[in-house]
Request: fold
Amino acid sequence: MQLRFCVPTLFGLEGLTADELRRLAMADVSAENGRVFFNGTWEDAAKANLWLRTGERVLLVLGDFLARTFDELFESVKALPLEDIIPKNGAFPVKGHSVRSRLMSIPDCQKIIKKAAATRLGHAYGLNMLPETGTLYQLQFIILNDRCLLLLDTTGTALHKRGYRPAASEAPIRETLAAAMVLLSRRRGDRPLCDPFCGSGTILIEAAMLASNRAPGALRHFAMEQFDNADAQMFRRLREETLEVLTPFEGPITGSDMDPAAIALAKENANRAGCSGQIAFTCAPFSREVLPDSGIIITNPPYGERLGTEVQARALYAQMGKVLAEGPNLGLYVITPDKEFERMFGKKADKKRKL
Reply:
């Protein structure tokens, strides 16, 4: 049976997530602001959870309807065959958000959806009171321009939580955003890659996982594995398949940071991710010596919270520009919230993208 799924993304990553889903051979992929849809089976949802690098969650679309009044919201939810998904003792808390819609009170929307779902399930199971003592079936709603999507979370903890980074250095970059930076760089597998401000190593680990075709979700579990209809054998098979498609690693990946604690943490994270032999870490301040002779730099340089002051950060940007202008012709991909970065660096970007 074909189901409809929704994958929320960070803004600016929708196209990348859509491309990932197409490479996974998902059907009817379409992107909107902040989310991507596709059609598939429960196995496709499992594959998406295991393999998506830039998506945040995989949500099953239970309903898509207009909700201009609370009565309309209640009746539309009550009409959905929720008993096909949620068992008699399933727990089904509700959370969500509403944007540019008449129903703007989140607590009231939660109560109405909860009441409607309980009414439907109670009637289906012949119960006046549902126990909710079993598996968690997290319901989510998104109301946008008076149109409501009711969704079931198949992921649990968000997909950017890969499992290799239980701790992080200050101001860490989210794994999904780090993976997006690597994808946007279009790095070839044999091209040297360096992050001279690597912190806890996230960008480099995501690059190594991509280069070796390592599934980002292989180290963790997902909410759908606990569902009453979960196919444990299917998940076991899919996880075994992720090992079968690992590819030989090519091209040096190096990282440096002046903080010894960050480098120690980066090494631990790389080891947990299965990439310890693929990344060379050095504890050193930024200089020509920490850069490769060719290839690309992908980095999230220090700013404000990480470095101490804006003045210090901008002095570092100027140093970066000087070192790179005098050194080899390296491609540079940098993410920064500082609108003055180009001026301090001393060169305009060839291309800019808002993430």
